[in-house]
Amino acid sequence: MGLSKQLFSNDYSKGTVFILDYPVTDFREHIVNNTLYSDNSKINAAAQVASINMLRRTVQGMKHGDSRPIKLYTVICEPLSAAEANQATFNQYRFAIAVSGAVVGILSFLVSRKLPAKVKENKMSEKGISGAIGIFVGARVRNYLINNMRNYNAGDVGIMTFIEVNGGIGPQYSFNGAHLTLDEY
After folding, report:
1. What are the φ and ψ backbone dihedral angles of 161, each rounded to 5 degrees?
2. Residues ≥6 apart with Cβ < 8 Å to 6
3. CA angle, 89 then 159 then 85, to 5°
4. 3-state secondary structure of 68
5. Rounded to an integer, what distance in angstroms lies between the CA atom of residue 136 and that of residue 126?
6. How close are the terminal C-alpha atoms of the chain, in Å?
7. CA distance 180 to 159
8. What does the alpha-carbon distance between residue 150 and residue 80 come to, in Å, rounded to a whole number?
9. pLDDT per residue over 31-87, tens digit each?
10. Distances (CA, A) of 44 to 48, 51, 81, 180
């Protein structure tokens, strides 16, 4: 029970994990507000807000008098280097292309199944129509994903909150993530 702090590292980033472990009856917002997540005041404030919001959302969903233990994990990543930011952005582009490719394949198959029998007799027409529709929609999906995905930049800081509530039907989890750009801190 209480506060513990651990360093973490993976292929993409490294940082610090803060773990607050209390029964819900002992969890108070001042515990989160008095936790120093970072020496940088803006990063610290953003981490406190993210943690408080996660805690409030979880506690509001619990019954009054519930005393199940809560573990609130707050992860503060170190600022991304230029290479890490480029790799993270590249991974998002790969994801967008993979999703649009899957959409093209599925739509081409589904359209070819729904074509009239006369069109199905001519295999070239069938392939052309189903392929054109699939490519058109797939391109739209790819453009939508690329235009709405986040671009990572050197210096971005990730803040993630993860909460675990044990008991009842088993452990229950909730996750939320945010980021601060270099201009924001």
Report:
1. -120, 140
2. 16, 17, 19
3. 20
4. coil
5. 16
6. 32
7. 8
8. 14
9. 787 888 888 999 999 999 999 898 888 877 777 667 778 888 999 999 988 988 898
10. 6, 11, 20, 11
